[in-house]
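Form P-L/3: holo structure prediction, ligand iron/sulfur cluster.
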Amino acid sequence: MDLFWQKREKTEDMGNGSLLWAIFHEAEEHILSWKLIENLRQRLKSEEGYYAFPAGLRERFALIYPNSYFVGMSNLGLHIIYALLNERTDTACERFFLPERKEEMEYVRSRTPLLSLETQTPLSEFPIIAFAVSFEMDYFNILRILELGRVSLLAEERGEDAPLVIAGGPCATFNPEPLSLFVDAFIIGEGEETMQKFMDIYYDAKKKGVSRSELLKALAGVQGIYIPSLYRHVYAQNGTLAAIEPLPGAPSRVYRQWVHDLDAYPAHTVVTTENTEFNLYLIETARGCGRHCRFCMAGYCFRRPRNRSLPVIEKMVHDARHYKKRIGLMGAAISDYPEIDMLCRDILGEGLSMSVASFRVDSVTKELVDSLSSSGLKTLTMAPEAGSKRMRAIINKGIEEEHLFKAMELGLAAGIRNFRLYFMIGLPMETPEDVQAIIQLAYKLRDYMDAGHHNGMLTLSINPFVPKPFTPFQWLPMAGQAEVQDILKILRTAVKPCKNIDIIAESPRESYVQGILARGDRRISQVLYAAQQAGGVKFFQRTLRGTGLNEDFYLYRRRAEEEIFPWDILDIGCRREYLYEELIKAEKLQPTLQCFDGCRRCGVCSG
Ligand code: SF4
Ligand code: SF4
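OUTPUT (holo model):
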């Protein structure tokens, strides 16, 4: 009955934090590469702020970002959970990342199991393994990491003494099903409060010596924890879901959790390093977004919009002086922060520089642009998303051309010479005129730059639209790969004569895989598994076809209003009828107002 704990107790008794123990214990099963251990130690030496505890006093917890260290260390969610767990008195949270190609080859060559950064301990020696999942394309990395760590990929094959694999983050929140074969428990929504409850239940179960399945059932009783093995998916003849049946003991709905008082949870970089994508000291100003862009998963899955109070942010800024890094303000739309000008003044007043994750051109201020420019910003990024007024009405973007010109004017006046515009193609109800409108808008903005003799670069960043769960467009088909390729060709041909307009585009092939994973069901979990066995992402499409599943079914059909979706077991707070009303409004080009105090429209603020 209590087999699950036996290996853990044994490893604790032996002090499994020591490398000596690892070498001794692994002699029969693993060989550890000194080169890899040395690399990890060097990486750790270049960090400030990581946690280290004497071996054996705390339960180990593996926190994994399923991409490289370089990318993962710029993920604020990872820092938040890392600090939260290590601030407990019973848990030692250590980090893992996907090794870089050369490192991975060394792991394979030397037969070394994947090692943690802090103590270079093999992954399989951790009783809990948690993935922070932000992007669908990282699902392949999750499987690779489990393989490298010698952890069974399939949850049902993990015995009583195997690690418990959990996952959280945006992808887990909007549709966990494509990972359901591999993950024992998902954290739905924001993790600050749920993870504490998770750990308390875990330690309580450990004390009582309950079995793995009893532990999972106990976790299923916690709000915001979803245990996929406790649900049966029943399919109709046409391939759609006929029912999602909770097994005995499982709740009929799993409710997304969100932090009501952000001030209670200041969120900032915990471990600093030079070796990361953005090399910023991240500070979160706000969560959620009240702008209601109809394509935006984050706008629906992280409601309601909440701001941290200025004094709490000011304290984080003040504390950040020690690190002498540029401050990266994090939030869905930084310019919507009500006291953004004051915050800019605070940051510069502390002798620091700043950067922002994103801003909206209809709320950007002169002070914000000036502060970014004086912080060394060379390229101002704006996100009209669509070229035509009509398409911006469909997606409820809520910005007009004059906002773009105003933001460009502020940027030029502040000495910024380069601009980047984000557009999506293949949006719902898109016509050839909408595509032409992207070109026209780009040329108008280019003319505006040229009129002032500003010869910087105008870059168009083009992303194929991928419909996401829990948005009003979850019912709609995605544009075909060929269609998207054609649009890209039209855009590239149109801007070719202008050497100061550049286009960068996300690969339509990658968007295709992303599209299937985003709205995939449990059967896609099997495809992922088979593709991984075959060699990874490049085998995904072939594997899908080989399993008899039809890509048209996942990508290219309009779903019936009442169709049961794989993610329908989750309750993110937005009523389904509200989302469908938003779809109808999109078809009628009707606007939706942003969130306001006292609003009860979507359901999130009614609870
Ligand atoms: S402004 Fe629109 S696109 Fe940006 S986070 Fe908010 S809802 Fe999403
Ligand atoms: S109920 Fe209203 S204010 Fe609250 S999240 Fe929904 S739309 Fe926004």
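COMMENT: Residues 289, 291, 293, 296, 298-299, 332-333, 360 surround iron/sulfur cluster (ligand 1) (CB under 6 Å).
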